[in-house]
Design a protein that fits this description.
Layout lengths: L10 E3 L3 H11 L5 H19 L5 E7 L4 E7 L4 E7 L2 H11 L4 E9 L6 E7 L8 E5 L2 E2 L3 H12 L4 E9 L1 H10 L5 E6 L2 E2 L5 E2 L5 H6 L3
Bound molecules: 1-O-pyrophosphono-5-O-phosphono-alpha-D-ribofuranose, uracil and magnesium ion.
Keywords: Allosteric enzyme, Glycosyltransferase, GTP-binding, Magnesium, Nucleotide-binding, Transferase
Enzyme class: transferase
Family: Belongs to the UPRTase family.
């Protein structure tokens, strides 16, 4: 499995021990839907912490009970989280716990099981997406085509500052995504061994949407 030293500079593997531990629990076949959802939310909150490390800060004057001070606050426009439906919602929910005033956009994509290419079925985005830092979330980066398509349509909609976050990435998906969007920083909690012939990430965690929502 790759680490930060063998990956393109735009890719960050979030190696925090809490993230690694929770991801191991999440992967396990015996992890029930309720537990899977809880772990996905917790990992996503930790990912949001890493993704927002470099947000610009400005000073504002506040009053403590003892005196006036110049105190740091986030500068500029707030964030927008874009969830790639449906499994992206499991990540967006966790991030919103840390970033409660972020706007949320939705892009509905499913993978055609034959071609493994994404099919768009829904899109609703904030009007001012061009003024925001946009964090695009989907738990799985497999072939990379869903993420690449989502980023392309967001750029078309005016987004200029984009980041992509997932739980698991296949090397094949990272290759596709970083070639298509060399300007977009990518954050993942792990890079797994490979894709299998059905386009599943191995060792992986199975179908993230089905495990989040108990549909299989
Ligand atoms: O990198 P790719 O090969 O494009 O695959 C990744 C996509 O596959 C899964 O979605 P799925 O089509 O299963 O839809 P779902 O979220 O509704 O389950 C996953 O959540 C990603 O969106
Ligand atoms: O392993 C995979 C690949 C795509 N989508 C998933 O949910 N899991
Ligand atoms: Mg699915």
């Amino acid at each position: 499995m790759a680490d930060n030293t063998t990956l393109p500079a735009q890719v960050t593997v979030i190696g925090h021990p809490l993230v690694r531990h929770k991801l191991t629990l999440l992967r396990q076949v015996g992890t029930a839907t309720s537990e899977f959802r809880r772990l996905a939310r917790e990992i996503s909150l930790l990912m949001a912490y890493e993704l927002t490390r470099d947000l610009p800060i400005e000073l504002t004057e506040i009053e403590t009970p003892l005196e006036v001070m110049q105190a740091p606050i986030l500068a500029g426009k707030k964030l927008c989280i874009v969830s790639i439906l449906r499994a992206g919602n499991g990540i967006a929910d966790g991030m919103l716990e840390l970033l409660p005033s972020a706007r949320v956009g939705h892009v509905g994509l499913f993978r055609d099981h034959e071609t493994l290419r994404p099919v768009e079925y829904y899109r609703k985005l904030p009007e001012d997406i061009g003024d925001r830092l946009v964090i695009v979330v989907d738990p799985m980066l497999a072939t990379g085509h869903s993420a690449a398509a989502a980023l392309a349509l967001l750029k078309q909609a005016g987004a200029t500052q984009l980041r992509f976050a997932c739980l698991l990435a296949a090397p094949e998906g990272l290759e596709v995504l970083t070639r298509a969007h060399p300007d977009v920083p990518v954050f993942t909690c792990a890079v797994d061994r490979q894709l299998d012939e059905r386009g599943y990430i191995r060792p992986g965690l199975g179908d993230a949407g089905d495990r989040l929502y108990g549909t299989k």
